[in-house]
Design a protein that fits this description.
With 266 residues, the chain is α/β, with parallel strands linked by helices. 32% of the residues lie in helices and 26% in strands.
Length: 266
């Protein structure tokens, strides 16, 4: 993480059954709207990128909703990343054909790490995001995680614990060809109480690729904190944008006042 590089604000669309939803700590989901409409709104308001995650594709063991991806991509003029249910090179190819600029892989990357390299070799590392859903855990008595911030990686929308340490998995993902890490704190997700800055910083300082912080955004101050204390290269949020709690233009103006370089909306 380098403070001189422009920081990105990313709007996230968690999608299930073709609709954007949002919950707290991966449960209690409520409807937030149509993905194509929300993507266009957030991009026009100043979002630097849009991420669409089909959050039940893996747990439901079904393909990602390509028609939703294609319809959303048509509305966008900013980079568009898509994830959820990507299990193979063919799945990734289908998403790129539907209009995605990047793909995000999570469960499949843990189960078959070679898929990271396969996709990176075909489409370039810049097009591959490895998503890590992490939950804090107590350090074993008399021991500590390699990062000093023990957190376990979960799969299938936070349903399955893997035993993997988040920082170590981020390092491995980078070594296999990932171009970015999307780090979501399951503890902070949807709480609007702030990002997990210590965990984000631990991952950001362990790798040499951009780290996107996710989970917990509730105010402009939280973004300032995650860029400064959390060493994030980008920060992602969902509910505060979907439900009009925070305006993207106001957020970027605040970040600029704090000395954090951002791209201001036209």
């Amino acid at each position: 993480m380098t403070m001189g590089i422009t920081k990105r604000i990313i709007a996230c669309l968690d999608v299930t059954k073709g609709r954007v939803v949002k919950g707290v700590q991966f449960v209690d989901l409520v409807d937030a709207g149509d993905p194509a409409e929300l993507a266009h709104l957030h991009a026009a308001s100043g979002a630097d990128e849009i991420v669409l995650l089909d959050i039940t594709a893996t747990s439901d063991e079904r393909p990602i909703l390509i028609d939703v991806v294609r319809r959303t991509a048509r509305q966008l003029f900013v980079p568009f990343a898509v994830g959820g249910g990507v299990r193979s090179l063919d799945d990734a190819s289908a998403l790129f054909d539907a209009g995605a600029d990047k793909i995000s892989i999570n469960s499949a990357a843990i189960k078959t790490p070679a898929i990271i390299t396969e996709i990176a070799e075909r489409f370039g590392s810049q097009a591959v995001i490895v998503a890590i859903d992490a939950k804090r855990k107590p350090a074993p008595e008399g021991a500590a995680a390699a990062s000093g911030v023990p957190a376990e990686v979960y799969l299938a929308g936070g349903r399955i614990a893997t035993g993997h340490d988040a920082v170590e998995w981020a390092r491995e993902a980078e070594s296999r060809g990932a171009g970015e890490i999307l780090l979501t704190s399951m503890d902070c997700d949807g709480t609007r109480a702030g990002f997990d800055c210590p965990l984000t910083a631990a991952v950001a300082n362990a790798v040499n690729i951009p780290v996107i912080a996710s989970g917990g955004a509730g105010s402009g101050d939280h973004f300032v904190e995650v860029f400064k204390a959390g060493c994030a290269d980008a920060a992602l949020a969902a509910s505060i944008f979907h439900f009009g709690i925070h305006d993207l233009r106001e957020l970027k103006a605040q970040l600029q006042r704090e000395g954090i370089p951002v791209r201001l909306p036209c």
